[in-house]
Amino acid sequence: MSDKPRLGYLGIGLMGEGMTRRLLECGWQVTVWNRSPGRLETVVPYGATAAPTPAAVAQACDILLVCVLHTQAVEEAVFGPNGVIEAESAPKLLIDHSTMDPAATRRFAEKLRQAKGTGWVDAPISGGPDAARVGKMTVMAGGSQADIDAARPVMADLAANYTRMGDVGAGQTTKLVNQLIVGTGFVVMAEALRLAEEAGIDAAALPGCLAGGFADSAILQRLYPQMQARAFEPPKSYSRQLLKDLHAVAGFAAELGLDLPMIKTAESRYKHHVAAGHAMRDSASIIETT
Question: Phi and psi (nearest 5°) for 165?
Fold first, then answer.
């Protein structure tokens, strides 16, 4: 029997699958739930235990991880019918890997603490399913120092970079900055590729040619070749998800009184891309409507 805390995981999507399988391989006991039960078959054969509701997962764990689509999905999983708050014995700590609104994060964290005494770390992630699968994610975290430290043993198996950015909500705010860079970067890479292809140069050689210069980046070295090869299956991220994130960034900037034209452009481009029928296609498929 492992002496590790028992884990729960709500949301077995692309990231949740990779993270859960990684945790199982590292010796953690993981109880799982997903809104669409069929997705549980991606982790149950590897040792995860399926539960029928978020409350049942919460009842079975000491630390609960959450990675669902958006703010409303987090609220429903935690506070809705059969949600975490209805568990007789709640976990000591909730680690939310979803991307959601910072202000709502603060409200949710306080509500859960008052009701159950459960700590909350907002810990949105970057790196994609491949990084999740091998424990190399980047995690930007918000929470008390005590809760950040309590999450550290789990993060040691999931993340290459786990950084406290401030109190609850700071992780989500940092993720908005991250998504501004990523979302505009996808559009920039698509335009760079289109320009290279139309100009007739060796487009596939561009990342190697620019390596080490000011134009170099992880986006150039990893995303550009994917776009150039038109390699969109299986999806590493969904276009609808990136549009949701870009919309959140634009809204947050507006709340701060900022006019950021780059994010508005990227949001508009992905809105058009999703409307053209690409909602569930890889975010890199933006090249096809560029």
Answer: -105, -5
Domain range for 12 is 7-168
Residue 2: inside a domain:
no
Whole-angstrom distance, CA of residue 174 vs CA of residue 13: 22
Work out how many domains the chain is built from and give that number. 2
Q: Are 63 and 29 contained in the same domain? A: yes
Same domain, 177 and 284: yes
Strand partners, 166: 142
CA-nearest of 59, 104, 65 to 86 is 59
Q: What averages of pLDDT result for each successive group of 10 residues across the chain (290 residues)?
A: 88 96 98 96 98 98 96 97 95 96 97 98 94 97 98 98 98 96 97 98 98 97 97 93 94 95 97 96 96
Rounded to an integer, what distance in angstroms lies between the CA atom of residue 166 and that of residue 101?
Answer: 15
The verdict on residue 1 lying in a domain is no
Output the domain CATH number for residue 106. 3.40.50.720
Q: How far apart are CA 80 and CA 90, in angstroms?
A: 15
What predicted TM-score, i.e. pTM, was given to this entire model?
0.90
Please give the positions annotated as active site.
175
Burial 161-192 (b: 16+ CB within 10 A, else e): ebebbebbbbbbbbbbebbbebbbbbbbbbeb
